Amino acid sequence: MKTNDSNTTSKVKQETFKQRLLRKLYPTIRKIGKKGKNGVVIANPDKTSPKNSFYNLKLTLKTGTVIDFSDYKGKKVLLVNTASDCGYTGQYKELQTLHEKFGKTLQIIAFPSNDFANQEKGDDEKIAQFCTINYGVTFPVAPKGCVTPKTNQQPIFKWLSSKGLNGWNDHEPDWNFSKYLVDENGILTHYFGPSVSPLEDGFLKEIAL
């Protein structure tokens, strides 16, 4: 019994009062955000191919595991910049649901970043614990880094938001939980703003195609 109480206390401590409040407010925040830039969806209807192959990119996780994006040929890849103290943090649960449903055909990778309003202040270990304990995340979480156009911008986000690399899109993340979808052939097909839920019909349609 003591062990269970201890585990419960540990879980509660992983989420602050602010984080619990934002989790409850998420549906309202998303609804309001859909009316502005955070609800934007940008598509690549002509399937313009990248100038630099997506499959040349690699990512090293905190564990030392190297993700070679060429291993994802034949699979869709969803790349999302995330944060623990954001009104959209509740999307971690939705992304995990998406992962469990489409894991065989879709790879999701989270990229924690402190670029927007200092909403990701924790280190990699704290972020990983937060994601696992509060949202049961089992998809890869990259080391914390920069996702906006700066000198230290992560290479994958430089590719995602540079027309000269991906072939057509210059749109950088508008806020935390911006989502970029790459298809089975390494073509960037969509940008979904933070207010676009990973579980809404329009999004699921693109995942299931």
TrEMBL record:
Pfam families attached here? GSHPx
**UniProt cross-references to SUPFAM superfamilies, sorted A to Z:** Thioredoxin-like
Q: Which GO terms describe its biological process?
A: cellular response to oxidative stress
Q: Which UniProt keywords apply?
A: Oxidoreductase, Peroxidase
Quick check: keyword Ribosomal protein in the entry?
no
Query: Keyword Oxidoreductase: yes or no?
Result: yes
Molecular function (GO) terms for this protein are:
peroxidase activity
- InterPro entries the record matches: Glutathione_peroxidase, GPX_AS, Thioredoxin-like_sf
Family, as annotated: Belongs to the glutathione peroxidase family.
Its recorded name reads Glutathione peroxidase
The species this protein was found in: Plebeiibacterium marinum
